[in-house]
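Everyone, carefully examine this protein record:
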Amino acid sequence: MPTTPAPRTRRRLGVAAVVTGVAALLCAVVAGGLARRGDAADASITPATMASTPSTIAPRTTAPRAVPATPSLPVTTTTLPPSPLGALVGDAVSAMPVAPPVDIAPTAVAIPDVGLEPVPVRPVGIAPDGQLEVPDETEVGWYRLGAAPGQPGATVLAAHVSWRDSPGPFVRLSEVEPGAFVDLALADGTSRRYQVVERAQYGKLMLPQAAIWRTTGPETLVLITCGGAFNPDIRRYADNIVVTAVPVA
C-alpha cells in the first residue's frame, strides 16, 4: 500500500510545478515575441521583392514528342473566262465614293452677273438627319462626296438664300439666267469658268436625283439654294432653286 508523502514533500512538489509552469510561460512569451517580430519583418517586404506564386503545373520530365512537318501542296491558279453577265457589268468597283484629290477642291465661287463676289467654299457632307450640310451665311458648301471640278459628274455647291435674318451667298441665285458665267477658284491656285445652261425650281422632295448626285457622265456645276414659299412656323422654304452650268472651253 503506497505511503502518503509528508506535508513538506508535497510543498516541494508544488513549488517545482510552479517553477515549471513559469518557465513554460516564459518560453511561450519569447516564442510569441519572435513570431511577432517575424510578422513585422515579413510585412516590410515590398511586393516587388516577394517570391512569385508557385506554379501548380508539374515540371516536364521528358522531351516533347516531335511532330512531323506537313508537306506543302503545290498551288495552282485557274483563270475562268468571264460570264456573259459579268462582261455586261464590267470590272468590280467599290460602292463607296472616292474622295477627289485635294488640289482640285473648290475654294471660292463668284457669279459676276448677279453681283456675287468670290465667297469662300468649304467641303461638306451629310448631316445626321440625312440632309446636305450647308454652312452659315459666310460660306458655300461643296458636297465632297460627289464630283470635283474637272472630273466627270456634277460638282454640287449649296448655300443659304438667307440665314439668321442675313442674306445668304445665294440670295440672288433665282435671278441667274442661262448664259451667265460662274467662276470657281481651286486649291491648286487655278480657276475654272462655267456657263449657266438652266435654272429650275423644284419641290424639296422633287429634286432630279440622277442629275445632281452623280460622279459619272459629263462634267457639270450645280448650284442649289432654297426658294419658293416661306413657312414662318418652321422657318423653311417649300422649294429649291437649282442652277446648272457647264465648263467653258
Q: What stands out?
A: Strands lie at 106-111, 116-124, 140-143, 154-158, 162-163, 166-167, 181-186, 191-203, 220-231, 236-247. DSSP finds three helices and ten strands in the chain.
